[in-house]
Amino acid sequence: MGKKTNYPEEIKKKVVQLKLEGNHTNQELMDMFGIKNKSQIKTWMKWYRNGESHRFAQPVGKQYSYGLGPEDENEVTSLKKKVAYYEMREELLAKYQEIERKWSRKYSSKL
Question: Would the pLDDT of 75 be above 90?
Fold first, then answer.
C-alpha cells in the first residue's frame, strides 16, 4: 500500500476550476500539479458537484460523513455534544454504582 498524499486545499480548488473550464484533460492536470491518480480529480469533482466543498480542507483520513468536520462546528453545537457526553457519563456511572451495591450486598451476606 502506497503512502497517502495530502494535496493543499488551494490545489484542489484550482484543479476543479481548470477542469470546469474544459481546456485541460485529467492527464494534463495530473502532470501540472503532480497528482498521482485521475480518480483523485474525479473525487474532487464529485465533491464540488455535490456541494461538499468543505471537504477540500479536510486532512487525509478524516472524511466526515455527517456534514462538516469538528473544526467547522459552531460553539452551540460543540457545547450540546459536551452536555450529551456528560449526561451519558452520569447515567453510566449511576448504573455502575447500582450494580456495585447489589454485588456488595449479595456477596457480603455470604461471608
Answer: no
